[in-house]
Specification:
Elements lengths: L9 H8 L3 H8 L4 H13 L5 E5 L5 H7 L7 E6 L2 H11 L7 E4 L12 E7 L2 H5 L5 H10 L1 E12 L5 H23 L2 H12 L4 H10 L2 E9 L4 E8 L3
Parallel strand pairs: 1-2, 1-4, 2-3, 4-5
Antiparallel strand pairs: 5-7, 6-7
Bound molecules: S-adenosylmethionine.
S-adenosylmethionine (SAM) binds next to helix 1, helix 4 and helix 6.
């Protein structure tokens, strides 16, 4: 199933940082990541989906937030290629009433039939799938394939702010603070250097919109969060 070997050891990074991943997220975003996920979840539930996929679920924060807000009977799946991150997600979901199906595998070849899901979401994972990734097109086409025509796709991701002054401060934070703070907290400086580099060089909302359109998504809308350092993108799979 997990066929894709990255050009760089992304998979291995998560093996190292999974223990402190949640803590580092809270610190990096000044606790705001929880609110951003809540907004993503509202967007994901808008079309009253019966089957939901959280791609690159990691330690499960997005799918857990969904489980607390969706109607009983909704089918919830979390998908990720890191066994360690998934183990954390399972641990966190253990005492919850809702049952979530966690599956290990690569987005490059997902084990779901075409058109399985009404809604798919991805929080802070799309960057991993497309930035300097030789499988970028494959990842995007898989994300499109597993959605029903007209199904909703929601992306929460870091973004390049359009305001030049804010972009300057954002870049300082990403270059000089985030990698070292992340390195200290997680013990893996390399992983957080990658994270900072990919965030700094990542797309604007307009660029991301074009990427989604090329991948077969329509009705693309976006919201800027945290003065444009983060974006929330909403799209629908094209109906042929
Ligand atoms: C930055 S974390 C985001 C985790 C979570 N969604 C969140 O909101 O915190 C990115 C996740 O994507 C996963 N990932 C990266 N590339 C992947 C791929 N090609 N297939 C499956 N999972 C992947 C990593 O294992 C990691 O758990």
């Amino acid at each position: 199933m997990a066929t894709n070997k990255q050009d760089f050891p992304l998979h291995d990074y998560y093996k190292d940082i999974y223990k402190t991943y949640d803590l580092v997220n809270r610190v990096f975003t000044f606790g705001q990541d929880k609110n951003w996920r809540k907004r993503a979840v509202s967007a994901m539930l808008e079309n009253a989906p019966a089957k939901i996929l959280d791609v690159c679920t990691g330690t499960g924060d997005l799918i857990l937030e969904i489980s607390e807000n969706c109607p009983a009977g909704t089918s919830l799946c979390g998908y990720d290629f890191s066994a360690e991150m998934l183990e954390k997600a399972k641990e966190k979901s253990r005492d919850k009433e809702y049952s979530i199906e966690f599956t290990e595998g690569d987005v490059a070849s997902m084990p779901y039939s075409d058109g399985t899901f009404d809604t798919a979401g991805i929080s802070f994972g799309l960057r991993n799938l497309v930035y300097e990734n030789s499988n970028a097109d494959l990842h995007l086409s898989e994300l499109n394939r597993v959605l029903k025509p007209g199904g909703r796709f929601v992306v929460l991701e870091s973004s390049k702010p359009s305001n030049q002054i804010w972009r300057f401060f954002n870049n300082i934070y990403l270059q000089l603070i985030l990698p070292y703070l992340g390195g200290i907290l997680s013990g893996n400086l390399k992983a957080y250097k990658y994270l900072a580099k990919s965030s700094k060089n990542y797309y604007t909302r307009e660029e991301m919109g074009k990427i989604l359109e090329k991948a077969g998504f329509r009705q693309i809308r976006s919201q800027s969060l945290f003065l444009g350092s983060v974006m929330l993108m909403l799209a629908e799979k094209q109906v042929n």
